[in-house]
Amino acid sequence: MSILAYNGAAIIGMSGKDCVGIASDNRLGIQYETVAMDFKKVFKMNDRLFVGLAGLATDVQTLDQLLRFRMNLYELREERTMSPQVFTNLLSNMLYEKRFGPYFCEPVIAGLDEKGQPHLSTMDLIGAISSAKDFVVAGTCEGNLYGMCETLYKPDMDQETLFETLAQALLASVDRDALSGWGGVVHIITKDGVISRELKGRQD
Length: 204
Prior knowledge:
Order of helices and strands: EEEEEEHHEEEEHHEE
Number of helices: 4
CATH architecture: 4-Layer Sandwich
CATH superfamily: Aminohydrolase, N-terminal nucleophile (Ntn) domain
Structural class: alpha+beta
Largest sheet: 5 strands, antiparallel
CATH class: Alpha Beta
Number of strands: 12
């Protein structure tokens, strides 16, 4: 079993019309044994930027703390909030610095840029960036997530349609993956604020 699949995860980032969404499951496991059902995998970096971290649970928590530290330093120096593009490059550099002993995490970055347009990107565990206009996925049920997102995604969705699409894609995908699931959470980022909702999923 891959070390990236040791704890299990499912994360989706998807764009809408002047909004962007990110969703993750809640399960923390040790391989096929479920340990917790409230493990946080998506982290708020600022009012317009979220990052989801799929991979080894200890590295997820370490990276979250490191990213907060780097962002706080940036905001003190620059006296402005970090844009999603700058954040993507920061995270890519952090991962590449550790390429010989990497953090076992695959990040998904979702946010709104200065013009209020969606920004989506993901990268592998050594920081190779892949950007997308429609959706990005990471986790142990990546194949299922791609299939569901390709089926359900439509361009220029409003906030409610985007939430429904993310929720259905996530719940349908984790049903076929024993390493992720047990409920989820969806965050919709708009220029007016963030809407967060919890999902109830199958508990078996």
